Amino acid sequence: MLKKLNLILLTIGIATFAFACGSGSNNTNEEMSSDDEMMAMETEPETTELESAVAVISGASGSNVSGSATFTELENGKVSLVIHVENLSEGEHALHLHENGDCSAADATSAGGHWNPTDDPHGKRGENEYHSGDIDNMVVGEDGVGTVEMEVEGWTIGDGANSDILNKAVIIHADADDFTSQPSGAAGARVACGVIQAGS
Questions:
Q1: Domain span at residue 28?
Q2: How far apart are CA 105 and CA 171, in angstroms?
């Protein structure tokens, strides 16, 4: 009888020990799983928000030009520029960034000269020397609408460096830029102006 009792108690003890070990193993797995999730959350790369800016373009020198210019930093280090304007005369019109974010003068001369922090000669962007503010000529159709889309190397947005376009002015001229005449390409009067401000 005593042998049977001892055998029963031994069986119960083994079963209890096995159950306890199994439960402990499960808890450990759960804790490891939870720890792994926490580590994964902590090591997730932070996404950096790309900077943007916009300029509302209005007429100058008696013109009725209106439109906008948007600037967006790209992951390749360049800045995307998209300009769309209306009520501009048919033909080619020079586009530049000027040094002062000030369009208060009727003829937009308050925007100052071309933005040129490196003190380079005026020229065509991508060819030899050119101002940081030299862009291109915009072709406008009979409907008075002009659009330019390009990626610009050497510009930044909001970092305070010499390459920062914030608080500069987008200027559209009456004539085309000849990319040769100094200091501004013989582009004629300033017919539109917009101050570049940080995007919302």
A1: 1-44
A2: 13
Query: Reduced to 3 states, what is the DSSP secondary structure of residue 44?
Result: coil
Q: Do 11 and 72 lie in a common domain?
A: no
What's the half-sphere exposure (Cβ side, CA atoms, 13 Å) at 88? 34
Tokens of 132: 């940081």
Determine the Cα–Cα distance for residues 161 and 32; give it in Å rounded to an integer: 47
Q: In terms of Cα–Cα distance, which of 145, 142, 129, 136 is closest to 170?
A: 136
Q: What is the pLDDT of residue 59?
A: 96
- CA separation for the pair 147, 199 (Å, rounded): 20
| Contact call for residues 125 and 114 (beta carbons, < 8 A) | no
Other CB atoms within 10 A of residue 15 CB: 10
Say whether both 114 and 181 belong to one domain: yes
CB 193 within 8 A of CB 169: yes
Say how many CA atoms lie within 13 Å of 126 toward its Cβ.
6
Residues 137 and 170 in one domain: yes
Same domain, 22 and 76: no
Q: What is the per-residue pLDDT across 93-104, written as a single tens digit (0 to 9) for each?
A: 999 999 999 999
Would you say 134 and 127 are in contact if contact means Cβ atoms under 8 Å apart? Answer: no
The pLDDT-based confidence of 200 (bands split at 50, 70, 90) is low
Which stretch of DSSP H or E encloses residue 158?
Answer: none
Q: How many CB atoms lie within 10 A of CB 125?
A: 16
Residues 111-125: pLDDT tens digits?
999 999 998 999 888
